[in-house]
Amino acid sequence: MPKKTKDTGLEIIEQLRKNLDSLRREATAAGLPTSRRNRLNQEIQKIGLEIEVLLREINPIKLPPAMFDPSNPDLVGRFIALALVAQPRVTLTVTIQTSSETPSIGNTQRAAPRSSA
User: Where are the domains of the chain?
Assistant: First the structure.
């Protein structure tokens, strides 16, 4: 009968699960100081990112390095900036009226209605 070889990858995953259970108990313990809880939160997020990188490395189907996300304000802002830069420039002009015939606000008069005779 052939001898079974150990799958070290699965053994490591089983150890991770056990450690995750211990970590869950530690992180949700009553009386844990806020500073320690925040530190745990940061470290867990870092590990989550490392696991995502590992998943991308071992996945035979590679994801593109960038994806279009129209809800990303940075990306949409860049598109708008590119569109504005691509347009021809228009000079801005300022017109100053110095005529005293222009009525000021509150000093307007209505024209008298025409009489039909």
Answer: 8-86
